[in-house]
Specification:
By secondary structure, the protein is an alpha+beta fold. It is 49% helix and 13% strand. It has 20 helices and 9 strands. α8 packs across α9, α11 crosses α14 and α13 packs across α14. It is globular, with a radius of gyration of 28 Å. The model has no long low-confidence stretch (mean pLDDT 88).
Length: 495
C-alpha cells in the first residue's frame, strides 16, 4: 500500500475516534448503532481498515456527521497538526518497521493525547527550523540509530559478500584489483566503464563517479586513486548484487529525499568494504594486533595496507568486527574536519555503539576540547604542512579520561590531508574496562599517557588547561545563576 492510501486510512480512523469521543459513545454503543462489530470499529480507528461507502454512510449517521465530511482527508481542531504531519509524508518515510514499530501505533499514541503530543511535535519541527535541520538530517539520524541498534554489524550483508566471493572465485588472501571487479561489472552486470569521463563535465569534477542507469554507463573521475576506483566498483556491485532499486546515482549522496536511498547507499558501502576487507582474514589480523605488548602506529596502519584500504574503510570495518568478534561493544567513531582557512574544527560524521559516548557533535558553534588526540594530530599535521612537509597521514593513540566521569577510553586517530583548505581526522575510541584490558595486550604500554579531556572549552571547568581555545563561558553563566539562586533562597528563608 502506498503512503497516501495509508495516511487516508489513518486520518479517517482518527476522525471516527474524535467524533465517537465527542459523542461520548463506547465501542459497544457505536457497534449497536451501525451494525458493525466492535473489533472492526477498533480496526477502523487504528487506521488498519478502510470501510466501503455504505459503511461510511452508517458511521456518519451514527456520529452526527456527513458522508462528505468523513471522506475529507484533513483533520480539524487539536488533531490538525497531526494531519499536516501525515500529509507531509514524513512519518511514512521514517523506517519505523526497522525498529519494530508500526505506524498506526505511533498515531494512536498521538491521538490519545493530541494537544500535548502535537505541541511536542510542533516544538521539534520549530527546533529543526531554528537549527537549519533538513529532512535528510532525520533520515541520516535514523540510519545511525539503525546501525547502532545492530552494533553496526549485518550478517545478511556479510553472507551476501561471502556467497558472491565464492561464486565468482574472488581471491581473499590478497588485495582486490581493478581488473577483477571491473570485469565483473562489465560481464556480469553489463556496465560500460568510462574511466575519465567526469573530467569532461566541469560541474561534476568533485564527484568520484556517476552511474547512468538507462545506458548502464559508469562515469569515473580521472583524479581517483587506484584504491578509490576499486571501492567505487565494489559499491556498484553492491547495488546490483543486493538488488537495491531506490538509490542515488552519484558516488556521494547529494540529496536524500527518502530513507530508502540513505539505507541503500549504506548497504552498498558496507558491501564494498566487506568485499575489500575479508571478514575472516581481518579477524585474524586483529587478533595478532591485539596480542602485541607494545603499541605501534605502523602495525595499526598495516591493518589497512594489507588490503590497500583507506583510513575510513579501516575504521568502518573495525566498527563492524569489534563488537561481533571481540565483544568490544562500547566504541565510538568520529570524523573531524579542520578548515584551515578558518582554523575551525567540525565533527561531520559520528557513530556510537553501546551507548552515547562523550565526544559528539555540538551544533552550538563551540570549540571542541583541544586535548582530544583527534584535534591535536590535526594541529600537528598543520604545523608540518606549514614547514613544507607533506605527510600522507599521521597516526597516534592516547588514553582519554573524560572529566567528571569514570570513563576511560583507548583512542586511536589517523589524521590526513583532505581537499583544498582542509584536513581530516578519523578516530575510534574503545571504552576501557577489565575485559577490554585483557583483550588488548598493549594497553599497559608506558607509551600511553592518560589525558583528561572534556567536550567543549565553553563547558569545561578544568582551570589549568593551556590548550583552551575559549573561556568557560557556559560554566561561568551556570555559576552566576547558582549564586543568584543561593541569594534568593537566603532572602526567602529570612523571618
Amino acid at each position: 500500500m502506498n503512503g497516501k492510501a495509508l495516511n487516508n486510512k489513518i486520518i479517517f480512523g482518527l476522525k471516527i475516534k474524535q467524533l465517537r469521543m465527542e459523542q461520548k459513545l463506547s465501542f459497544a454503543q457505536l457497534s449497536k448503532e451501525t451494525g458493525m462489530s466492535v473489533s472492526y470499529l477498533n480496526e477502523i480507528e487504528k487506521g488498519k481498515k478502510a470501510p466501503k461507502d455504505d459503511k461510511v454512510k452508517l458511521l456518519a449517521q451514527a456520529l452526527g456527521s456527513t458522508f462528505m465530511e468523513l471522506k475529507k482527508t484533513e483533520l480539524t481542531n487539536n488533531l490538525a497538526p497531526l494531519g499536516q504531519l501525515l500529509q507531509s509524508n514524513f512519518l511514512n518515510e521514517l523506517p519505523l518497521e526497522l525498529f519494530g514499530i508500526e505506524l498506526y501505533k505511533v498515531v494512536e499514541i498521538i491521538a490519545n493525547a493530541p494537544t500535548k503530543v502535537t505541541a511536542f511535535i510542533s516544538t521539534l519541527v520549530e527546533l529543526s527550523r531554528n537549527y537549519a535541520l533538513r529532512e535528510e538530517s532525520f533520515y541520516f539520524a535514523a540510519l545511525r540509530s539503525y546501525q547502532e541498534l545492530h552494533q553496526n554489524y549485518f550478517e545478511d550483508i556479510e553472507k551476501e559478500v561471502s556467497d558472491f566471493v565464492k561464486k565468482n572465485k574472488i581471491p581473499v588472501d590478497r588485495e582486490l584489483t581493478l581488473g577483477v571487479l571491473g570485469n565483473l561489472l562489465k560481464e556480469k552486470y553489463g556496465y560500460e566503464i568510462l574511466e575519465n569521463e567526469l573530467n569532461n563535465h566541469q560541474d561534476l569534477a568533485s564527484l568520484r563517479s556517476v552511474y547512468l542507469p538507462k545506458q548502464k554507463k559508469l562515469l569515473m573521475n580521472a583524479q581517483l586513486s587506484n584504491m578509490q576506483r576499486v571501492f567505487q566498483y565494489g559499491k556498484e556491485i553492491g547495488f546490483q548484487h543486493l538488488d537495491l532499486q531506490e538509490r542515488a546515482y552519484t558516488s556521494s549522496l547529494l540529496k536524500v529525499d527518502s530513507f530508502e536511498k540513505a539505507l541503500s547507499h549504506f548497504k552498498a558501502t558496507y558491501f564494498s568494504c566487506a568485499l575489500f576487507m575479508n571478514r575472516e582474514r581481518f579477524v585474524d589480523s586483529l587478533k595478532s594486533f591485539f596480542n602485541r605488548t607494545e603499541w605501534s602506529g605502523d602495525a595499526f596502519m598495516d591493518l589497512a595496507k594489507d588490503y590497500n584500504a583507506s583510513p575510513e574503510m579501516l575504521f568502518q570495518r573495525l566498527s563492524n568486527i569489534l563488537p561481533q568478534y571481540f565483544d568490544l561493544k562500547k566504541i565510538f567513531i568520529i570524523r573531524i574536519i579542520h578548515r584551515l582557512n578558518k582554523d575551525l574544527f567540525e565533527i561531520d560524521k559520528e557513530l556510537h555503539i553501546g551507548g552515547q559516548h562523550h565526544p559528539h557533535e555540538n551544533g552550538l558553534h563551540e570549540h571542541y576540547c583541544r586535548r582530544w588526540i583527534s584535534i591535536s594530530l590535526l594541529k600537528n599535521l598543520q604545523v608540518l604542512q606549514t614547514k613544507g612537509e607533506t605527510p600522507s597521514l599521521i597516526v597516534g593513540a592516547q588514553k582519554s579520561h573524560f572529566f567528571g566521569t569514570d570513563d576511560d577510553y583507548l583512542v586511536i586517530t589517523i589524521a590526513k590531508p583532505g581537499d583544498i583548505n582542509r584536513n581530516v581526522s578519523i578516530t575510534m575510541g574503545v571504552l576501557l574496562d577489565e575485559e577490554t584490558k585483557q583483550k588488548i595486550k598493549f594497553i599497559d604500554d608506558p607509551y600511553f599517557k592518560n589525558i583528561e579531556v572534556n567536550k567543549t572549552c565553553q563547558r569545561c571547568p578544568i582551570e589549568d588547561c593551556t590548550q583552551r581555545a575559549s573561556s568557560p563561558r557556559v560554566i561561568k553563566q551556570r555559576l552566576r545563576r547558582q549564586k543568584i539562586d543561593e541569594s534568593l533562597n537566603r532572602l526567602m528563608d529570612q523571618k
